[in-house]
Amino acid sequence: MEQTKIFLNESEMPRQWYNLAADLPTPLQPPLGPDGKPVSPDMLAPVFPMNLIEQEVSAERWIDIPEEVLALLSKWRPSPLHRAYALEKALGTPAKIYYKNESVSPPGSHKPNTAVPQAWYNKQFGIKKLTTETGAGQWGSALAFACALVGLECKVYMVRISFDQKPFRKLMMQTWGATCIASPSSQTDPGRGILAKMPDTPGSLGIAISEAIWEAVMDKKAETRYSLGSVLNHVMLHQTIIGLEAKKQLEKAGVKKVDIVIGCAGGGSNFAGLSFPFVADKINGAKIDIIPVEPSSCPTMTKAPFVYDHGDTAKMTPLLPMYSLGHDFIPPPIHAGGLRYHGMAPLVSQAIVEGLLTPRAIHQLECYEAAVFFAKTEGIICAPETSHAIAAVIQEAKKAKEEGKEKVILFNMSGHGLMDLTGYEKFFAGQLVDYALPEEEIKKSLQAIEGLPKPSMAKTGKW
Amino acid sequence: MEQTKIFLNESEMPRQWYNLAADLPTPLQPPLGPDGKPVSPDMLAPVFPMNLIEQEVSAERWIDIPEEVLALLSKWRPSPLHRAYALEKALGTPAKIYYKNESVSPPGSHKPNTAVPQAWYNKQFGIKKLTTETGAGQWGSALAFACALVGLECKVYMVRISFDQKPFRKLMMQTWGATCIASPSSQTDPGRGILAKMPDTPGSLGIAISEAIWEAVMDKKAETRYSLGSVLNHVMLHQTIIGLEAKKQLEKAGVKKVDIVIGCAGGGSNFAGLSFPFVADKINGAKIDIIPVEPSSCPTMTKAPFVYDHGDTAKMTPLLPMYSLGHDFIPPPIHAGGLRYHGMAPLVSQAIVEGLLTPRAIHQLECYEAAVFFAKTEGIICAPETSHAIAAVIQEAKKAKEEGKEKVILFNMSGHGLMDLTGYEKFFAGQLVDYALPEEEIKKSLQAIEGLPKPSMAKTGKW
């Protein structure tokens, strides 16, 4: 019998996270404050605990995973590595396709890989409560889960339109003991300000971030902090457990060389988690194609410039060096919620600038077709975000067939879509259309970054 | 670091299913036809393929699992065995609690363990299409998944009220390529008959079963068969892979003896799957408590008699020897959908009569409290059905604490509750009440079995 899944025992879990910042050919550009000067670690202290800030600015290649964090991660990790025999057969491809199945976590995605250590480090630092924002609800439910496990209060500001449309996500958070409220709310200054002007607003991620940060920094006892589910360096760091496990599993499966690594990328964390250990190999000379995939409707990596921009619409965050469509960017409403972010993680962005990654944008109909094809062959109903990775895998598998090459393709099955079936419903009903963001829209959206500092990338000559 | 999960490699998967019928002290009573005479295998041929009928009537102890079925099951099996350290700690119990995590299957429950072999055996027999009914949607989505993997058409009659209230389940089936329609429908004689009399009926499982069987037997090419997700002997058989895996995993964990085995029981399949290999040990002299758990609102095992009764309301099925509240029983509307069945699997029923099992009924508020406690400690949001097993586990763990005994408790985490969060919502809103079925209701419901033959259980003297 052919082996479909490769397991690792808990004793084989990676003991350290991998930090790509240590290996990038050009050092990371620092975040900048409103004055255009680099932000120092202590300036972030009201928002994040110092132990996570240390990880955020670390240049160490390997960072130990605390034993207690490993014990918590072992509630669902190591995640299985699957060989996609049925998908390969249906495509008639000579490619060997493997995927990490991150859907086995209780919240159903890769998000708890960073939610758990973030909650644990905050608890260690004496913090009592975490605040965060959530759009579709994936991140909010992962943080609620993590806070339940370590014993922290958790408050989630959920974008009002999602709060109303997705009551199940709110119920997940509630079951784990978190408080989930619609944003904008009347509980924060930013929320009250918006409500006074626009009482019927559907809300936005930008507003929700502002509310969550405001609550954290306004706690007079300084026992509340804010938590972010993507974009930042320490989030990418925690997610590398995916790729590090995958390497061990591929070795067990007797795979000597991976040719193509693929992940979908919104803020960048699931992609980074799988791919960064392979990016390290590429820096060391390995020949490997590493492909972050985004929607054509939000083409941050494929159409936007590498700039300094804010992480949020309300400009409460420092300026980050990243590919960005501009912080005022309003994505088209119908799409994978997790891939609608205007920016891209600085670590992923710089790896693109360095020529280590080859981003790709795909239309949404092709993605949903890929998702349904995957469900009927491999059996898993994937998240709408994950469908972008699968669509790219199918493109590459077909190319391998044309070329007659037995390539090894590895991708990240970042989450299941059981809480996001309305996208499938619209697809089946023929209500989804392809939409590529027009050049004039991009130009207009990029006006938001005019006058902001530019990153210097002397080595690559890009700037 | 303590080991939280015990994995098996695919090469360690059981190669045979265990058939309890071979070991029961008294032979199973046969199913009876409308004339009160035993039903012969060929009388079932229009409904089921002969290879499954052979399993249904088999008295062999071990039945080989075909290699191709093992390959399909390996898409998610072997399922992990978890040690519930966090739950034990929160309860302060000396008991060691283990659970099989069946929520890792793509449809999220134990149901595919039988859906996949049923689909495969039908395909082998030359069948082109399977029909079935579904209430809450758990079984219908599992069969849709299985039919996608083996390449069969699948038609699911879903009780209308659930069809309207749970559009996500329908979408899961659709994604796997199945057709899911509301029952009663205008596509079958039984459906048309009901609609003519009651155009606004919310439907029932009984009606849906009738429609599914009707479509199967009316196929002029005889290429359609019907599939049932619980109750029957071959369904129990397929589910024993759960308990057989658990035994191997407990051995790996160094557990010499299990003291208590617990599962929730509606039709009986997830309970049987985990427990039957341990029932075999008990028959051979092992001291072990084996507890099927049901809701107080549907107390089939704890309040009803062991009788011959029909499996469905419309009396289309043969008479089965089982504990039954009567085929006209209408369960109270608010409850775990999978535990509202009027009967109980004949194999489970007879094991109760033989004194091998000690059934227990629990109120729903205690079950939801247990579910929320489990989510906050172990991290998994369980199905409403599964919460009954967890409530019994907590009862036994507290008892072990009082007695100061280090017992080993094993239970079946039969599925996750991500598609069934409305029950949690009602619980949080204080809208759920405890309800035990009153004696007079039971008496009234049992009128349906008056005049039907009685099973002879001479050996135990119960009849």
List the helices and strands and how they pair.
2 copies of one chain form a homodimer.
Chain A: E1 5-6, E2 16-18, H1 50-57, E3 62-64, H2 67-73, E4 81-83, H3 85-91, E5 96-101, H4 112-124, E6 129-134, H5 138-150, E7 153-159, H6 160-165, H7 167-175, E8 179-183, H8 189-197, H9 205-218, E9 224-226, H10 233-239, H11 241-252, E10 260-264, H12 269-283, E11 289-295, H13 300-303, E12 306-310, E13 319-323, H14 346-353, E14 360-362, H15 364-377, H16 386-403, E15 408-413, H17 421-428, H18 439-445
Task: Note down, in words, how this protein is organized.
The structure is a homodimer of 463-residue chains. By secondary structure, chain A is of the alpha/beta class. Helix content of chain A is 39%, strand content 15%. Chain A has helices at residues 50-57, 67-73, 85-91, 112-124, 138-150, 160-165, 167-175, 189-197, 205-218, 233-239, 241-252, 269-283, 300-303, 346-353, 364-377, 386-403, 421-428, 439-445, and strands spanning 5-6, 16-18, 62-64, 81-83, 96-101, 129-134, 153-159, 179-183, 224-226, 260-264, 289-295, 306-310, 319-323, 360-362, 408-413. In chain A, α12 links the parallel β10 and β11. The longest helix of chain A is centred in the last third of the chain and has 18 residues, at 386-403. The termini of chain A are far apart. Mean pLDDT of chain A is 94; it is low at 458-463. Chains A and B meet through α2, α5, α7, α15 and α17 of A and α2, α5, α7, α15 and α17 of B.
